Amino acid sequence: MQTASNKVLNGWAMYDWANSVYNLVITTTFFPIYFLAVTNENVSFLGMHFVNSALYNYTMAASYLLVAIASPILSSISDTRGNKKNFLRFFTILGSLSCCGLYFFNKDTLSLGVLFFMLATIGYCGGLVFYNSYLPEIAAPEDRDRISARGFSLGYVGSVLLQLIGFALVLLKPFGMDDGSSVQTTFLLTGIWWLGFAQITFRTLPATRPTVEKHTGNAITEGFTELRKVFAQVRTMPVLKRFLRGFFFYSMGVQTVMMAATVFGSKVLKLDASTLIATVVVIQLVAIAGAWGMARLSGRFGNLRVLIAVIILWVGICFAGYKMQTATHFYLLATAVGLVMGGIQSLSRSTYAKLMPETKDTASFFSYYDVTEKLSIVIGMFSFAYIDDMTKDMRNSVLALVVFFVIGLIWVISALLKQRQINTEAVSSK
Predict the structure, then answer these.
(1) Most buried residue, 12, 208, 293, 319, by CB count within 10 Å?
(2) What are the domain boundaries of the chain?
(3) Three-state SS for 48?
(4) Using an 8 Å Cβ cutoff, are 280 and 336 in contact?
(5) Span 201-244, pLDDT tens digits
């Protein structure tokens, strides 16, 4: 296949610019800090009692679980009906308007805040499968590492810009704002930014053709048929299967570290909000270099080899996080996280796009990648919250993530060995 024009590639990458502000502002910096500030250490929700940080993590885990359940059938429907862009638009509207709704969250409206946080998370992660599935449609295999890195890099730059705007609002408090209203305004701006810039993507991305020309059943029936067909294909691809298993386990660690880092810094190390926000900005900037650097290294050494090296670095980061005591330790570790964060996310997406077969069922195939990631986040965040809730020490939660990384490492090594075996047999048969 031929790589699409730069106009299409840039339009696709602009969605990262649009939606990454949710990932930075809502899940990484302003919202978790604000959530802990306006809630008590122990809170009551739906008749149950939680540590406030655990409720935050449970809410996120529940959101990802709902998307993991719905994503496969929705992606299959989008393939059979050729309406992938409409699903992406729906989740964008849901997520962005929910971010705007967080403007009304304060200490007296906990239930409202949890609801909008959950809906914003569903909008964000629900749209990713449809966005990611465009990658194999618009980029040739040899260009997918580079194009994937372009998307993540634009996402990091865009989210940092809005982060700085929010930081300025918190520091300067213009128009008579106080600490609470300045943060709430940042939530509102996040939703507006996400919805506004996503329009560039919607205008640019090509329409997709349905994989079923003549419909013999309803959308749900055809969706399940499509899903079974893709599942049967995946079962016959040994390298892809092993990679997905590894991705499942190491994503538990990666995503949990990213989502819980700010809560850890605020609650365990007692770092102030300004320090945490500034640190996260540095992480995002370093992550740009990480994404491009990993893309270059994968071209020289191969995707799986580079992933193995990066996972080993993540194991070291978890051990260091468990021992971390001072703000200086946090800054140094945050820089290391930034370097490997962008690289492993970008490279994982492009590796899957390379390993999957040439197919029109791109959304259905990427739903396997998406569900694998979402379920890993559910288990990772739930485990992190449960250990925090039971032991009352978040350091134990950090240490437990090592197990996930080690299992993931074993499976990725297995995928590499299987790939070598297949290549050797192919050469021998000639």
Answers:
(1) 12
(2) 6-206+221-428
(3) strand
(4) no
(5) 999 988 777 665 665 555 566 656 666 777 788 888 899 999 99
Rounded Cα distance between 390 and 150, Å, is: 41
CB 337 within 8 A of CB 264: no
Report which residue type is found at 90. Answer: F
Fill in the DSSP letter of residue 45.
E
Q: Give burial (CB, 10 Å; 0-12/13-18/19+) of 428.
A: exposed
The 8-class DSSP code of residue 272 comes to -
Stretch (H or E) spanning 50: strand 48-51
Per-residue tokens: 284? 């995002």
Which amino acid is present at 51?
A: V
Tell me the C-alpha to C-alpha distance, in Å, between residue 29 and each of 62, 78, 134, 139, 159: 20, 33, 29, 33, 11
Alpha carbon dihedral 185, 186, 188, 193, in 10-degree steps, equals 140
Query: CA 155 to CA 14: how far, in whole Å?
Result: 8
Tokens of 371: 């569900």
Q: Three-class SS of residue 364?
A: helix
Per-residue pLDDT reduced to its tens digit, 334-376: 788 878 877 788 888 889 888 888 777 676 777 778 778 888 8
Residues across the chain: 430
Class of CATH domain 6-206+221-428: mainly alpha
d(CA 85, CA 93): 12
What is the distance between the alpha carbons of residues 395 and 250, in angstroms, rounded to a whole number?
19
